[in-house]
Amino acid sequence: AGDPVIDKTVDYILDMEQAGASLIEIGIPFSDPIAEGPTIQEANVRALKNKVTTDDVFEMVKKVREKSDIPLCFMTYLNVVFHYGYDEFFKKCQEVGIDGIILPDLPYEESQEVKDVCYNYDVTLISMIAPTSKDRVEMIAKEAKGFIYLVSSMGVTGTRDKVQNKMATLHVADAMTDVFALFKRC
Questions:
Q1: How would you classify the pairing of strands 24-27 and 72-75?
Q2: Which of 65, 119, 126, 136 is most enclosed, with most CB atoms within 10 A?
């Protein structure tokens, strides 16, 4: 959100919906986006240089909601939510119509504190399964709501010429087999 300017983000979201997107992930600018590759890191820097704040992103979502009811999820980092205040952040999410949140730096084992608050405001905490989740896949999948964010490779987001770790790919394939088997049982 906010790259190149906050008002263009509204246009981009509406264009994505028009092009057939069924859900939009909105990144809240953050100074240390550790899970992101160079492209999204640079977008964060540009948005922050434009002085885009979390409140600006909430206001932008209000504008989107005037024209669209497409599901919207925030993607941000725990520090943003913690600094804003859990109750206040998720209350604002509910007020503007955010459906879910992705927090890549929130380990599953430490997520209950956030879940308790966001579910009070009808915001879904999106569960993540990564190549390293092998022994935890069933546990994570059983409690997942909304959808599961499958991390397909090790490292940060972005383009790759090749997958660096064949084992990581195999573990993700095995994890997805486990997830599909679990959903068939449910």
A1: parallel
A2: 126
With tokens 């859900």, the residue in question is 23
Taking the model in full, what pTM does it have? 0.79
Q: Residue 75 belongs to what H/E stretch?
A: strand 72-75
Residue 60 bridge partners (DSSP): none
Instruction: Give the integer Cα–Cα distance in Å for 180 and 35.
Output: 26
Alpha carbon distance 14, 24 (integer Å): 10
Give the tens place of pLDDT for each residue, 42-98. Answer: 887 888 899 989 999 999 999 999 999 999 999 999 999 999 999 999 999 999 999
Residue 44 C-alpha from the chain's centroid: 15
Dihedral sign, CA of 172, 34, 159, 26? positive
